[in-house]
Amino acid sequence: MILDMFNLKGKVAVVTGANTGLGQGMCVALAQAGAKVAGVARRSCAETAKLVEANGGEFLEVIADLSSVEPVERILNETVDKFGRADILVNNAGIIIREDAIDYREEDWDKVIMTNQKVVFFLCQAFARQYIKQGEGGKIVNVASMLSYQGGIRVPAYTASKSAILGLTRALANEWAKYNINVNAIAPGYMATNNTQQLRSDEQRSGEILERIPASRWGTPEDMMGAVVFLSSAAAEYVNGFTIAVDGGWLAR
Ligand code: NAD
Predict the structure, then answer these.
(1) pTM of the prediction?
(2) From 67, 165, 195, 243, mutation site for ligand 1 pocket: most ligand atoms within 8 A of C-beta
């Protein structure tokens, strides 16, 4: 039956940036759909663990700093040691550093590209190798952005990295679909999280943004739940290399 295709019972999901915001919401969604969840974060995921467990799920906290590729193998190993396998990777962790392009510093460029782009690729590679070893396919869901499609203002490294995510998602889908690995992405619109705190506290920018969103509101972590469960499930078996916008209609304007 169709709803059974969305059921993630027996699956193991890894979500990066699990302690807050969209990542926390996606952990809860995957747990509600039946998956065991490993949450990766630099600091405690206690709040997320509580929410997952309140939803009847099992949670593993993996402390890791994704400002280098160093913890990539350990994230996979800790997950497999605890839960025996891995089936779903959600590359959600990301940073944004705002500065006029003319003044943008090399070290800020490197930080953003490292976490948002390089580490994402190597996590995809590590998990795809594991999926191939397990022989049953797997899912990868990357988190893109409106700035995978648009230029943005004062965020050149972020735009470059999120545009790369859209392309990388296609490239990996092409190579790995034959292994039954689905690589897709979600492009959130303007969501009320830490990532947009600075933007939302700027009255003028905030007003301009809200005015342009057909749904007339900022998105929430709950808005991500349907898309992440879909792309992580058997219902998305023939969806490859696509980036789904969850944006209240922003891109439709
Ligand atoms: P957030 O700042 O609340 O969450 C970012 C997460 O990434 C946090 O959990 C943070 O701890 C984690 N993270 C950052 N650097 C890390 C590092 N070095 N090591 C480990 N974890 C690290 O913001 P959010 O809105 O929940 O962002 C989640 C994702 O969604 C990001 O990739 C962001 O770019 C993307 N996104 C957000 C919006 C939005 O409007 N909020 C829009 C489009 C895309």
Answers:
(1) 0.98
(2) 195
